[in-house]
Amino acid sequence: MDCDRREFLKVGFKTLLATGVSIGAFELLKPEVLAALNKEKGLRWVFVVDTTKCVGCGMCVRACKLENEVPYETNVSRTWVERYVMTKDGKILVDSPKAARDGFIKNDPMGVTVKKEDIDKAFFVPKLCNQCEAPPCVQVCPVGATYQAPDGVVLVDRTWCIGCGYCIMACPYGVRFFHPLYRVAEKCNFCYHRINKGMKTACVDACAFGARQIGNIKDLEDPVARIIKTERTAVLKEEFGTKPHVFYIGLDSIVR
Amino acid sequence: MEVHGELWTLKEFFVYPNEYIYWSIQIVMYPFMTGLVAGAFVLSSLYHVFGRKELKDMAKFSLTFSYALLLAAPMPLLFHIQKPLRGFNVFFTPHFTSAIAAFGVVFFAYAAIVASEIWFVNRKFFIESAINLKNASGLGNRLKGLVYRAWTLGSYDISEEALKKDERAAKILAGVGIPTACFLHGYAGFIFGSVKANALWMTPLMPVIFIMSAIVSGIALCMLTYIIIMEAKKVRILRKRKPWMISVEEIRSVEIDIVKSTTKYLIFFMIMAISLELLDLVFRGYTALKHWDILRTVIYERDFINIFVIQYGIGTLLPLIIFLIPGLTIKRAMVGLFLVLVGVFMMRWNVVIGGQAFSLTLSGYMDYIMPIIPRNLETLKEGLVGALTIMALPYIFLWMLNKFIPVIDK
Ligand code: SF4
Ligand code: SF4
What we know:
The complex is a heterodimer. By secondary structure, chain A is of the alpha+beta class. Chain A has helices at about 5-25, 30-40, 60-65, 135-140, 165-170, 190-195, 200-205, 225-230; strands at about 45-50, 80-85, 90-95, 120-125, 145-150, 155, 175-180, 185, 210-215, 235, 245-250. A two-stranded antiparallel sheet of chain B has the order 1-2. Chain B has helices at about 25-50, 55-70, 75-80, 90, 100-130, 140-150, 160-195, 205-240, 250-285, 290-300, 305-325, 330-355, 375-380, 385-400, and strands at about 10-15, 365-370.
C-alpha cells in the first residue's frame, strides 16, 4: 500500500471525526431530534374526523362542492355527512339526503318523524375518501389513471381515465362516482391543490366545530398525528384490509 | 343535470349518496359474449384434440364462429366505458394489477391462436381458391383472389404430407387454445370475483363458475346457429329444386345426428355448471358471514324470480328435461338450446346486476331499470338497443367471414 505518514494522519483524523459525530448523534437522541428526523422522512396526509363534534350542518359538503366544482345540483358528492338515529325500540335510521348538502334541518331520518323521547342515540358521521394505504381502486384501474402519490393521497388523472367504473366497484366505501361534466372517475383528493400550498382542505376550513382536521402523520409535532397516536381512534370497514387513513373519534358500531 | 347511472337506478333505504348501478347491461353482455367465445372454442376442440369424429362438421363451424364472437367480445366494454376513444389507453399503459388490463393481453393471445388454427384448418381451401381465382374477371373476384393469395403466405404446398402437418399444427393449437379459452373467460370471472368490496362477487369460485357456464352457452349457441343455418340450407335447396346437390333428407339426418351427439356434451357441462353454482350458494348460507343477511334477502326475495324461476327453472331444469326425454327432435332441441342461452344470460345478469342490487351500506337496495326506449346516447348504449346491437354483431362478423372461409362444409 502506497501510503505516507501524512496521508495516514489525514485518514485517521477523518475517521476519528466521523466516529465522534456518530457518537454525538447517539447522545443527541432526544425527542426533538427524533421528530426532526421523522420530518425528513416525509409526508403522509391523514384526516381525523371527530364524530362527537359534528352537528350535521353540511357546511363542509357545500364548501367541497363549490371548491371542487362538482355541479351543485347533482346527486353526487366528494364528501357527505350521514345521520344516525337509534330509537328506543332498536330501529336504526340512517340517511344523507343530497349528501347533507343543506344540512339536517328536520327531525325526519329516512322520512320518518321521530319523537325526541323515542331516541336512544343520534349522531352525525362525515365521510370522505380514506386515502387508503392499500387502495383497491388503484389496484384495479386498468390504465393506471388512479394512482397513489408518495404522500399517500390517491389521485385520478382526468386526462387518462377511460371511464370503466372498475375503481368505483372496487372501493368498499362508495366514495367514488363519475364526474357529471368530465365523465371520468371522481372522488375526494384531500383538496390536493390546497394542501400542497400549505392551506387546509375546503371542508376543514368550512367546519366551524372542528370536526374535521387534516395533518401529516409523519410529523410528530402535528396535532392531528398526535391525536391519532395518543387517542382512541378507529377506521371504517377495517376488514377489507385497505388500511384507511381517515381516523374517527367516537365511532359507533352502528356506523356503516 | 343527471349523473351517470341515475337514469336507470332506483334506490331504497340507506344507500351511500354516490352509489348507483354503474355496471349496467353492457357489463352483463361482456361476460356473456366472452363466454360464448370460450364455449364455441371448447366445442371445436372436442374434435381437434380429443378426436370426436362425430363432431367434425360442428367443430369446423364453431371454430370460425368462435372467431366471429371473439371480434364482438370487447365491444360491450367499448359501449360501456365513458370515454370510448381512450379505450386504447389500456394497451399504452397496461396496469397489470388490474384484471381488465390483463384480460386485454389474454384476449390478443387467444385471438392469435384461433386465427392461426383457422388458417391451418383452411389452408388447403385458401390455396385452391387462390389458384382458381388467379385469372378471374370482375373486381370482386379479383379482390377476393388477392386476399386468398395473401393468405397462402407464399406456400402452395398441398401435398399429403403438408396437409398432415397442418392437421398436427391445428391439433396443437386447439390443445393450447383450450386452456387459453378457459383463461380468457376465467379472467372475465376474475374481474368480478376479485372485487372484495362486493359481497356477492367476492368468491374464488367465480372464475370456475364462469368457465362452466361459458362452455354451456357456447355449445348451445353453436348448436342453435348450426341448426338455423342447416334449416336455411334446406329451404334454399327446396326452392332451387336442385336435388342432385344434396337432398333435404340427407341434410336432415346429418343434422339430427350431430345435434344428438353434441347434446351429450352440453348436458355434461350443464350439470357441472349447476353443481358449482349451487355449491357456492350453499356455502354462503352455511358460513353466513356478516353480509349474508342482505345477500339472502336479495337472492331469496328480491331476485327470486330471476334466479330460481328463470335461471334455474326455465334456463336449466327445463332444457335438461327437454334433452333427456328420449327421441330428441330438431324442434325440441331448438327450444331447449334457446332456453339454455336464456339461463346463462340470466346467470350473468344475476351476478352483475344482482351484485349491485344491495348497497355497500348493507342496509339499502338498488334496482336497475333497463332503458328500453333510448332518451340519449347513454340510454341508447346501456339499454336494450345497445344490448341487441351487441347480440347482432357476431352474426355480421360471421357473415363476413363466411365470404372467405367455408363455415360449413358444402
Ligand atoms: S376510500 Fe375508496 S377511493 Fe379512497 S383510496 Fe380507499 S378505495 Fe380508493
Ligand atoms: S374509471 Fe377511470 S380511474 Fe376508475 S378504474 Fe376505470 S380508468 Fe381507472
